[in-house]
Design a protein that fits this description.
Layout lengths: L2 H12 L5 H7 L5 E4 L3 E4 L2 H5 L5 E2 L5 H11 L6 E4 L3 H7 L7 E3 L4 E4 L11 E6 L5 H13 L3 E5 L7 H6 L1 H5 L3 E6 L5 H6 L6 E5 L11 H8 L6 E3 L5 H12 L2
Parallel strand pairs: 3-4, 7-8, 7-9, 9-10, 10-11
Antiparallel strand pairs: 1-2, 4-6, 5-6
Helix pairs in contact: 4-5, 6-11
């Protein structure tokens, strides 16, 4: 339930096109829908926050994801499911032809209709290496599903800094920047000294043994000497994409 849908329901009642019983029927699951004791869909979230509820698939059975997506398809909001594997996709792919599964970002989405005019403001998602792409794409797709224009700048890590400098103008003009890096996690600090935009740093679990599954990158980003760098959790591309979307909407 988004603002547009709720407005349409109330307008139909105001104009006398729907009686009270019909209007209450449309609102019966508002603000939440209860699904068989395993989930309560927050149908009020988009009205409160501007972003619809997102399904985190890891830990959920294919049957549970099936039930959740099936109910979400009854509404008009964008749909985003993260950390979806092949079994989750197999369970839901026949629900609607507009559902799309991206195995790299591990997402299942139903996007909003694309606006006719191109947004001038955009988010830059910058990834240090190709191995960081799953997390970077989770951030990028999250931001896109939430209605933002996204520019991707990938494989520009500090092992070859000239690659970043070749794309720096795109990054500098962004409204917000998501910087994704594993290994030693240096990319956000480099960007922090080159741009005047908010930077959301995402450490990834990419790296050899002493990276400790992303902990080394996380600590490096938290200890960055560059001002204006904010850090989310390891591999949390969704959280970074959501935060960047909030900044871009200001």
């Amino acid at each position: 339930m988004n603002r547009e849908t709720l407005t349409q329901i109330l307008e139909r009642y105001r104009r006398g096109e729907a009686d009270l019983a019909a209007t209450l029927g449309e609102l019966k699951d508002f603000p939440s829908a209860h699904l068989g004791g395993y989930a309560q869909l927050d149908l009020h979230r988009e009205l409160r926050t501007g972003h619809p509820e997102v399904v985190y698939c890891a830990g959920k059975t294919p049957e549970q994801v099936h039930g959740i997506i099936e109910r979400m398809l009854k509404g008009k909001s964008a749909i985003l499911a993260t950390r979806a594997d092949a079994t989750h996709w197999e369970a839901v792919k026949h629900h609607s032809p507009v559902l799309v599964h991206d195995p790299i970002s591990r997402t299942i989405v139903r996007r909003r209709p694309q606006p006719t005019e191109t947004h001038q403001n955009y988010i830059a998602v910058v990834a240090a290496g190709t191995s960081d792409m799953p997390v970077a794409e989770e951030a990028a797709i999250t931001a896109e599903v939430f209605g933002n224009r996204v520019e991707r700048v990938y494989d520009v890590g500090v092992a070859g800094l000239h690659r970043l400098l070749n794309r720096l103008e795109v990054v500098q003009k962004a409204r917000a920047i998501v910087a994704v890096a594993g290994m030693e996690g240096a990319l956000p600090s480099v960007l922090g000294g080159l741009v005047d935009r908010p930077i959301i740093a995402v450490p990834t679990s990419i790296g050899y043994g002493a990276s400790f599954g992303g902990l080394a990158a996380l600590l490096a980003m938290l200890n960055s000497c560059a001002p204006g760098v904010t850090v989310v959790n390891i591999d949390n591309g969704f959280g970074a994409g959501c935060a960047a979307s909030n900044i871009n909407r200001l």
